[in-house]
Amino acid sequence: GQNIDQPTEMTATEGAIVQINCTYQTSGFNGLFWYQQHAGEAPTFLSYNVLDGLEEKGRFSSFLSRSKGYSYLLLKELQMKDSASYLCAVRGKSDSWGKLQFGAGTQVVVTP
Amino acid sequence: DTEVTQTPKHLVMGMTNKKSLKCEQHMGHRAMYWYKQKAKKPPELMFVYSYEKLSINESVPSRFSPECPNSSLLNLHLHALQPEDSALYLCASSQDSRPGGAQEGSQHFGDGTRLSIL
Q1: Which residues make beta-bridge pairs with B117?
Q2: What is the pLDDT of residue B102?
Q3: Closest partner CB to A98 (pick from B2, B56, B108)
Q4: Which terminus of chain B, N or C, has less C-beta within 10 A?
Q5: Contact B104 A91 (CB under 8 A)
Q6: CA distance A96 to A90
């Protein structure tokens, strides 16, 4: 089976940095995605990692360690609009290429 | 605004009704998906179409019937739904669903149809 764990909620102040961890145990690995979802809206793609290391995209960075089954999403210079749910999703073995297994999501609350 | 368009945005239907959800994308993506999402839960995959053929059915009840008329359109036909089927139904598309296809294949989601079953 597949198991993806991430914290339920995190709170941080505007301008700060928050790191959302995601650990996974999946049958096969073909990439890890991070999505942002505001309440009542569609998930939007943030980042993709398939090789070990750090991917940086502006204020957002994502890290992957395949040997540890671990990823994190780093949000820098937090803004109020960053309050949202952040979903970690893993693409498993290649015969289910289109299938993403989502974690339960981490609700990030940014306070003034 | 997203590049994946879903209609209607909201739908209220009785358990004996038949209705359809529609999804359209013009990004040239060849993989399209239906997800169901309950409040405060992650999206759950229902169906995957790759090159207009159904490639994954996650043991979805037959009261949900997907259809992919062409590479840009995806429908979800609903019949005899139950109250527990009330949820947000999300459509998504990506460049490729096949092994060895596009290396990233990030899925682009529509805004969803919020479905309520009376």
Answers
A1: B13
A2: 58
A3: B56
A4: N
A5: no
A6: 11
Total residues found in chain B within this entry: 118
Residues 6+ apart with CB under 8 A from A81: none
- Residue B2 — very low, low, confident or very high, per pLDDT cuts 50/70/90? low
Residue B92 burial (C-beta neighbours within 10 Å; 0-12, 13-18, 19+)? buried
The torsion region of residue A107 among left (phi > 0), alpha (psi -120 to 50) and beta comes to beta
What are the average pLDDT values for consecutive 10-residue runs of chain A, which has 112 residues? 88 97 90 93 92 95 97 98 97 72 95 96
Residues from chain A contacting residue B10 (CB–CB below 8 Å): none
Q: What is the DSSP string of A42-99?
A: --EEEEEE-SSEEEEETTEEEEEETTTTEEEEEE-S--GGG-EEEEEEEE--GGGTTP
Closest alpha carbon within chain A to B5: A42
